[in-house]
Amino acid sequence: xRLFIAISxxxxxxxxxxxxxxxxxxxxxxxxWSSPDTWHITLQFLGExxxxxxxxxxxxxxxxxxxxxPIWVHGTGSFDRAGVFFAGVNVSPELxxxxxxxxxxxxxxxxxxxxxxxxxxxxxARARGDNRAQALRKLQSRANRDxxxxxxxxxxxxxxxxxxxxxxxxxxxxxxxxxG
Length: 180
Description:
4-stranded antiparallel β-sheet; 39% strand; 5-stranded antiparallel β-sheet; 9 strands; Cyclic Phosphodiesterase, Chain: A
């Protein structure tokens, strides 16, 4: 199973991001816009995982003790090389600590954290084809880099299973882990 650990978004943030993404869409813009039901803030992507590792993950993630995490989604940006347009997420000390607790827990099950710095975000669109950079530049010229969205407090984090098909990704919650 293909797994990741994430924080779900508050409904008000989803509504605001949905409004933003609809306002930015153009016909034939070279972008695949993600569905609001797939939006989340990744704490760690795990990839293909065995049933044995899944059991280990649930055991160790259940041991995490963390206060609720304040979340502030703001601004837009892009990862040009990956062809991703996103809404940014402020890295609060609480979010950074939760991410470290999650990666420590998963390391006990043999899974390694990524080498690159943690950059939480909400993926809104992916550029397709050979003109990815151009599509992202056009999109960024229309987007408000300083867009503000409602803050919220995450009361839990989740273990998701991801399913990929020709239409994109579909995510199902497998486990919930309370904060506080």
